[in-house]
Design brief:
This protein has 9 helices and 14 strands. By secondary structure, the chain is α+β, with helices and mostly antiparallel strands. The protein has 2 domains: 90 residues, Pseudouridine synthase, CATH 3.30.2350.10; 175 residues, Pseudouridine synthase (2-Layer Sandwich), CATH 3.30.2350. Strands 1, 2, 3, 4, 5, 6, 7, 10, 11, 12, 13 and 14 form a 12-stranded mixed sheet that branches. The longest helix has 12 residues. The two termini are 24 Å apart. 33% of the residues are buried.
C-alpha cells in the first residue's frame, strides 16, 4: 500500500487486523485531562471511520510517551488487540529505539537490569510520573549498544541503540539516566526533575534550551518485529529531522565500524 501522511503521523503498514504508524513528537497517544489537543488515537479513529462504523475498535498496543517519536502498533478490533496484547506480555514483539545521550559510554555494549518504581512511593516527589531505580521496584532489563560517539560545541554525546526486554514506564530513560547518560532534551531525567517543573510553570525557555538543547527527549522507536499469521513483520521508522540535525552539525565524530553502522545507515 502507498504511505499515507497525516499532520502528526504517517501510516507505515496496514492489514485487516492492525495499523502501524510513525508518530511525531509531541503528539500524545491518548486523550488526557480533557485537554483539547490532537491525539494519535483521535487521528486513527478518523482514518478508520468506515471500519469503526462497521464494528472496529482501535486499540494502541505499544504506547509511546508524548515526546517520544516512532512506531506505534494499533489493533483494529478486539480479537487482534487481545492477541497482540498477549504477544507484548510474552515478549514476542521485539522493539528497538534510537537515543541521543550526553557523554561517551565507556563500553560499546552493556545491560542495565535495575528495578524501577515511582519516585513518590518511597519519598516525597513533586512529579507524579517520575520513576526511579529502587531495589523494591519492578524488575526490568534494557540492553544498550553505542552506534556513534560525537562532539557538538565541545560537549560529548553518543547515539545509542536500545533494546528493552521489559516494558516499564520510562524504562529506557530511567536506565540511561541511572547509568550517567541522560537523553538529550529529557526534562524528567536530565537531573532530578527541576527542568520538568520549570517547563510546566513557564513553558520552553531560553534557560531550558541552554540546558536541554532539544524541547523533547531525543528518543525514537525505530523498529518493531513480530510474527503475525505466518508473516514475519519487520518495520522501520527513519530518525526524525530534529534528531538528525542534532547529529549532523558535527565538528568531530567518532563512529563505530561501518559493518555495524550499515544496518542503520538509512535511519540517519
Amino acid at each position: 500500500m502507498s504511505l499515507q501522511v497525516f499532520p502528526h503521523f504517517q501510516v507505515i503498514d496496514e492489514s485487516d487486523d492492525w495499523l502501524v504508524v510513525d508518530k511525531a513528537a509531541p503528539l500524545i497517544v491518548h486523550p488526557t485531562n480533557r485537554k483539547d489537543e490532537p491525539t494519535l488515537l483521535g487521528g486513527v479513529e478518523q482514518l478508520l471511520s468506515f471500519e469503526i462504523s462497521n464494528g472496529a475498535t482501535p486499540a494502541v498496543v505499544n504506547r509511546l510517551d508524548r515526546d517520544t517519536s516512532g512506531l506505534v502498533l494499533i489493533a483494529k478490533h478486539r480479537k487482534a488487540a487481545s492477541a497482540l496484547g498477549s504477544m507484548m506480555e510474552n515478549r514476542e514483539i521485539n522493539k528497538e529505539y534510537l537515543a541521543i545521550v550526553k557523554g561517551w559510554p565507556t563500553r560499546d555494549q552493556w545491560v542495565c537490569d535495575q528495578p524501577i518504581q515511582r519516585a513518590g512511593i518511597t519519598r516525597e516527589s513533586r512529579i507524579w510520573v517520575r520513576q526511579i531505580v529502587h531495589p523494591e521496584g519492578k524488575a526490568c532489563r534494557t540492553t544498550f549498544r553505542v552506534l556513534q560517539r560525537f562532539k557538538r560545541e565541545g560537549e560529548a554525546y553518543a547515539l545509542i541503540l536500545c533494546f528493552p526486554q521489559t516494558g516499564r514506564m520510562h524504562q529506557i530513560r530511567v536506565h540511561l539516566s541511572h547509568d550517567g547518560h541522560p537523553i538529550v532534551g529529557d526534562k524528567l531525567y536530565s537531573g532530578h526533575g527541576e527542568e520538568y517543573v520549570e517547563w510546566m510553570a513557564d513553558g520552553w525557555t531560553d534557560g531550558l534550551q541552554t540546558k536541554l538543547h532539544l524541547p523533547r527527549q531525543a528518543l525514537h522507536a525505530s523498529r518493531l518485529q513480530l510474527a503475525w499469521q505466518g508473516r514475519a513483520c519487520d518495520w522501520y521508522a527513519e530518525m526524525p529531522r530534529d534528531m538528525r540535525n542534532f547529529i549532523d552539525a558535527l565538528p568531530y565524530c567518532q563512529s563505530k565500524s561501518m559493518i555495524e553502522w550499515s544496518r542503520y545507515e538509512g535511519l540517519i
